[in-house]
RNA sequence: GUGGGUGUAGCUGAGCGGUUAGAGCAGUGGACUGUGGAUCCACGGGUCGGGGGUUCAAGUCCCCUCACCCACCCCA
């Protein structure tokens, strides 16, 4: 037996149905804000990720699925989707538009040790908003992320938010942090001793008790922002507060991708990170190698974390409401043609009227079995022709809930069925 | 990548050195051959995750391996 690769999943009913409905709700919601869909390849040149998400991030440095194709091109399965979107808007000359609002939905791949909520092939949705560097764009992005979880799925969430500064103030802050932690080097955990040299900001994120205590008195990013960054962040906070978006200012929040600047945020439920994002004003410049310079902000959310959570919350029952089901059954070889004809006509009408019903065509030798099967399928109306009906050119229609049934002439079947559908 | 736990029928669980691996649910057939859901009866289904070892004897003990789960790490 060949089994699926580690960290991957098959999604079968009912989970496949839940996923479909959850993602449909999210995507149609995003379109209300004027976002348009974009699709990019699931593999790209390795360089795209190394130069954007950053060589110092674990995602790129340790977790990428890299491979050579038959001509020796260095490729990678995408570990995130922001860099590909940026690449795509540059390559397709969308860059001249004053603002660009895009959303995506697709798989990402990370070579990690799998657990619940964490798979090697995962599904992300997200938005990217290009063209506005003002806090109002950050606000819109956070508002959308908030409403996806709060309004659509009714989840209690926290928005953690921070500003990590810009290319002017961030290096200075980094130096301060380094200068602070170097004094405690021996007390830091082994990971943090390594981080101190690679990216000292990450120490702020450490869960080790000693490191946490040391971090308490470290220089706070909010106190080391330049005036512009400080103003940007305080304006954003003001707007969010005025709209009663429950934010938690978390000066220890540092995100794992190198391209962020200024605003970074995470959407959390209990301790689960549902989504993360922020501003990346230099990424377009970076990927276009200095040709274009466009500010941007966005976020990405994980579909699996959301659906796993919804399963626990029993929200899914709502998503799996039964459709109205009709079963058309032949009980005799001689009835097959008539039944098939009725079936195809009904299907034709349903398609034209866009009715939300489910229709099953079955064939049994014995009525008892046919009914048992219909029962398992949770059929609402059971319609059949057997020897008895054939004698008088009739068809029997049975309501499975009440058990009531009636015989009608075959030629009246379609209009009767349509009438039943209409009434339900 | 580090540490820990789990893996027995389609699903959920017993069994923890000793007959032919046991149960509930699900499935199939029948009681009931043109009327379902209920009940009763019968039946089918297992390389006990995989490989190796210890032993007269291994689902049970040991080693390796694979997968899943948990805590780190990291992150969606």
**Helix fraction?**
25-40%
Oligomeric state: single chain
The count of strands amounts to 16
Note the gap between the termini.
Answer: 46 Å
- Overall geometry comes to elongated
Unreliable runs: none
| Structural class estimated from helices and strands | alpha+beta
Short description:
With 424 residues, the protein is an alpha+beta fold. The protein contains 16 helices and 16 strands. Helix 13 crosses helix 16.
Topology readout:
Layout (H helix, E strand, L loop, with lengths): L14 H17 L4 E2 L5 E3 H7 L5 H4 L4 E3 L5 E4 L4 H10 L8 E10 L11 E10 L4 H18 L5 E6 L5 H13 L8 H9 L10 H8 L10 H16 L4 E3 L11 E9 L2 E8 L3 H5 L8 E7 H10 L3 H4 L4 E7 L5 H18 L3 E7 L3 H10 L4 E5 L1 H5 L2 E6 L5 E5 L3 H10 L2
Helix pairs in contact: 5-9, 13-16
The chain binds one RNA strand of 76 nucleotides through strand 6, strand 10, strand 11, helix 11 and helix 14.
């Amino acid at each position: 037996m060949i089994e699926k690769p580690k960290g991957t999943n098959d999604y079968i009913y009912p989970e496949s149905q839940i996923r479909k409905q959850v993602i449909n709700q999210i995507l149609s919601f995003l379109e209300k804000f004027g976002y348009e869909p974009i699709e990019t390849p699931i593999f790209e040149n390795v360089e795209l990720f190394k130069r954007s998400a950053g060589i110092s991030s674990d995602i790129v440095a340790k977790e990428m699925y890299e491979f050579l194709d038959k001509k020796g091109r260095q490729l990678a399965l995408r570990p995130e989707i922001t860099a590909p979107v940026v690449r795509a808007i540059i390559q397709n000359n969308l860059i001249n538009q004053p603002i660009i609002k895009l959303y995506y939905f697709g798989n990402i791949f990370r070579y990690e040790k799998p657990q619940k909520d964490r798979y090697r092939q995962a599904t992300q949705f997200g938005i990217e908003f290009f063209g506005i560097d003002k806090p109002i764009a950050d606000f819109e992005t956070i508002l959308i992320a908030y409403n996806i979880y709060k309004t659509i799925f009714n989840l209690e969430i926290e928005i953690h938010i921070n500003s990590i500064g810009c290319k002017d103030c961030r290096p200075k802050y980094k130096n301060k942090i380094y200068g602070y932690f170097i004094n405690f080097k021996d007390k830091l955990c082994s990971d943090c001793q390594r981080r101190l040299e690679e990216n000292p900001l990450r120490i702020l994120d450490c869960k080790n008790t000693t490191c946490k205590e040391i971090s308490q008195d470290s220089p706070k990013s909010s106190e080391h922002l330049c005036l512009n960054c400080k103003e940007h962040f305080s304006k954003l906070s003001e707007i969010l507060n005025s709209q009663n978006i429950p934010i938690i200012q978390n000066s220890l929040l540092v995100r794992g991708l190198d391209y962020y600047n200024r605003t970074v945020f995470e959407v959390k439920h209990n301790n689960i990170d549902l989504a993360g994002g922020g501003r990346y004003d230099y990424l377009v410049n970076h990927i276009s190698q200095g040709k274009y310079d466009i500010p941007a902000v966005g976020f990405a959310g994980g579909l699996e974390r959301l659906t796993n959570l919804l399963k626990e919350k029993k929200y899914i029952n709502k998503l799996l409401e039964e459709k109205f089901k009709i079963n058309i059954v032949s009980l005799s070889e001689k009835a097959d043609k008539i039944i098939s004809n009725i079936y195809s006509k009904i299907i034709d009408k349903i398609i034209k009227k866009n009715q939300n019903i489910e229709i099953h065509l079955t064939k049994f030798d014995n009525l008892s079995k046919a009914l048992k099967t219909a029962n398992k399928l949770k059929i609402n109306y059971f319609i059949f022709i057997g020897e008895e009906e054939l004698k008088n050119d009739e068809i029997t229609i049975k309501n499975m809930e009440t058990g009531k049934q009636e015989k009608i002439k075959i030629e009246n079947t379609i209009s009767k069925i349509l009438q039943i559908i209409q009434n339900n």
